[in-house]
Sequence to fold (247 residues):
Amino acid sequence: MKNSILSLIFILILCVVASAQKIGIKAGGNFTNVIGGDNSASSGSSDKHLYVSGFHAGGFGEFDVAEIVSLQVEAVYSTKGFKQKYSTSSLLVNTTEEVKYTYSYIDIPLIINIHFGQMGSYIGIGPQVSFLAGAQWNGTQTNTYTNTAPPPLTNTSSSFTVSGKDKTGYSKTDFGAIIGTGSKWDSGIEYCIRAGYGITNIIDPSASLSNAVWHNLVFSVSIGYGFGTGGGGGGDRYGHKYNKKRR
Fold:
């Protein structure tokens, strides 16, 4: 089933690229986190997920399918992740961890853009498939040992670095959905604000001992430049259609 979906997406991408009336480049920043938790977390523990910043860069192709509707496909390198603050207590030791997880993906969104207004504005929505390119984590763990030292000695503690780089235990493919809005101007410059959600659990239960269920959550802002094939200059095709009066 998954291979069939991937094959269909690949065919759609080829169709869009082959008939694209505009191609372009884009880049910007990400603000990311995960939704979910660890079902095996013990009582007395605390697990918080914080947003982290990232970036994305890539290219796109776009063509019209109706007067105010266009289809856009992209290939974008994107960094996602989150910061985890975890703590747990027992009779003898209190453990705290603060670790930043960073995941690198190749995102392939297929977006339907609905254009409106006099400023080249549009709303876009569609599915996205993301391929995991890398995974790494960096942080610290501190253990504070209690009830182990007689008075007047104090409790002892130790800290060490938590770091690594390995895709093992993570899902290699993430299916999701995105929605966004932006503007495409006569000059060829365009911007976009988006929100994306990964439907797939990024933890692969068949390859990991973890019971965690994490879904990527991404907010992004990007700026790009489109090279149109109609009119003079990149993006002028959209300028004539949405920004200027026809003569």
Summary: Residues 229-247 have pLDDT under 50 and may be disordered.
